[in-house]
């Protein structure tokens, strides 16, 4: 049985060798062509980032080191594998896979869970900072600020100040990443308690539970098996979606300045807080409830169509639909829908049923509207209605749960960035005048 640190150390030489070979043999190979429309179009489709954990295919969706979501569900240790209640993948298992490319044993995941539980308590100064926020401050702003304040105890920042060698950066970056992932549930639960008055109020950690078993308990769902399992699945499969999305890209960019993992991930959370990215799950639920209010519980396809058109005609986007890369329904949406199908309390829920009905009607409407390149549901279309059905109705909190998840994907890449010796990121920008002058040449 290996520790996670040993497992990472073991893969580093081969990874470094692979990079060296790529550089030596293909340093000047072309990966595409940069056109002016790329510069003006959000750099869509340009292959300009290295990202080890996952690759997103526009047709088949996400794979984590080559494993699709159903593949991962087959091989990654679940709660039951650790002797706990529940059958979904544990985010700890996904974290191990993303960091090492290998499937961990049950024992390895159990040890990692225990390590996370042991490191999960918050330092007093961070509790104080969170307690000082007004209830009216958006939970995502509170989350990002608290994560930044955790850098007070950064092992990487301390080692850097002492002059650690570049080849050794990855080890304290990994340590900070594990510490941060361990503390995210308590940060998120304290915010939930302060803003909404729900949960145990103490963020008590049970050393026999997994990361998300503890989180569920802290926010008051310890006895709700359906919710606990849903949170495990959602957080595991939502962790990584290759590198170009705003949150992952931000963590990588800020980390490239050798800002420590807390600062890098705090910045990522601020990007996740935008409505075109992570905040979409909050937006979807507000939008779906407004529709339910407008058309009643048993909306017909015709009524849903009309509602979709009214959103589009008012110049807004339909939240939870479209994607910058995907051109098919999001496999994460499919996995969450399957979860709903297996549980009567979700199958019979009017809000879950409405969201599923919308997912059948909206693609036709969006195709007819003719703007979006992808008319299909993304993960955010499904994620909120399950939380709502289980009684977590405060939807300004939903993106915080996404924020716990994204750390599992963004932080492993920071570790890889450091053991691969990736440089500070610094693309070239142009003004319109300088572009015109360049294009005239
Ligand atoms: N409803 C209406 N119009 C849409 C649309 C939607 N769901 N998705 C895209 N469009 C429009 C888009 O606004 C753009 O219009 P303009 O030409 O007027 O600017 C046009 O279609 C072409 O956009 P695209 O190339 O298909 O999409 P982008 O790559 O520019 O943007 C998204 C991708 C995800 C930002 C976009 O589809 C969107 O705004 N979706 C709704 C918000 C959402 O669900 N975001 C969450 C994405 C999720 F996966 C995540 O990050 N968690």
UniProtKB/TrEMBL annotation:
<dbReference type="GO" id="GO:0046912">
    <property type="term" value="F:acyltransferase activity, acyl groups converted into alkyl on transfer"/>
</dbReference>
<comment type="similarity">
    <text>Belongs to the citrate synthase family.</text>
</comment>
<feature type="active site">
    <location>
        <position position="380"/>
    </location>
</feature>
<keyword id="KW-0809">Transit peptide</keyword>
<protein>
    <recommendedName>
        <fullName>Citrate synthase</fullName>
    </recommendedName>
</protein>
<dbReference type="GO" id="GO:0005759">
    <property type="term" value="C:mitochondrial matrix"/>
</dbReference>
<dbReference type="InterPro" id="IPR002020">
    <property type="entry name" value="Citrate_synthase"/>
</dbReference>
<dbReference type="InterPro" id="IPR036969">
    <property type="entry name" value="Citrate_synthase_sf"/>
</dbReference>
<dbReference type="InterPro" id="IPR010109">
    <property type="entry name" value="Citrate_synthase_euk"/>
</dbReference>
<dbReference type="Pfam" id="PF00285">
    <property type="entry name" value="Citrate_synt"/>
</dbReference>
<feature type="active site">
    <location>
        <position position="323"/>
    </location>
</feature>
<dbReference type="GO" id="GO:0006101">
    <property type="term" value="P:citrate metabolic process"/>
</dbReference>
<dbReference type="InterPro" id="IPR019810">
    <property type="entry name" value="Citrate_synthase_AS"/>
</dbReference>
<dbReference type="GO" id="GO:0005975">
    <property type="term" value="P:carbohydrate metabolic process"/>
</dbReference>
<dbReference type="InterPro" id="IPR016142">
    <property type="entry name" value="Citrate_synth-like_lrg_a-sub"/>
</dbReference>
<keyword id="KW-0496">Mitochondrion</keyword>
<feature type="active site">
    <location>
        <position position="277"/>
    </location>
</feature>
<keyword id="KW-0808">Transferase</keyword>
<dbReference type="InterPro" id="IPR016143">
    <property type="entry name" value="Citrate_synth-like_sm_a-sub"/>
</dbReference>
<dbReference type="GO" id="GO:0006099">
    <property type="term" value="P:tricarboxylic acid cycle"/>
</dbReference>
